[in-house]
Amino acid sequence: MHKVLIYTTPTCVYCKMTKEFFEERNIAYEEKNVSLDEKATQEMVEKSGQMGVPVIDIDGKVIIGFDKGKLSELLEVE
């Protein structure tokens, strides 16, 4: 099983798309809302160098934005 963490904000369309992608494929994930959690914001920036969301961490590999192809590849799903 993969360790999946997504940094989000409530208004982010691409965050919602990413979560729907995970849910459709029964991928368990942890979500951190960076608009409410300053520590999560700092973690996200340290991992990605970015302030934009979503930032997705899959087994230590970081994806910035909703990249369906890269998500599929790292999670070994279609």
Automatic annotation (TrEMBL):
InterPro entries, alphabetized: GlrX_YruB (IPR011911), Glutaredoxin (IPR002109), Grx-like_ET (IPR051548), Thioredoxin-like_sf (IPR036249)
Domain Glutaredoxin, first and last residues per copy: 4-63
SUPFAM superfamilies attached to this UniProt entry: Thioredoxin-like (SSF52833)
A GO MF term: electron transfer activity
GO biological process, one term: cell redox homeostasis
Pfam families xref list: Glutaredoxin
PANTHER family: GLUTAREDOXIN, GLUTAREDOXIN-LIKE PROTEIN NRDH
Name the UniProt record assigns to this protein: NrdH-redoxin
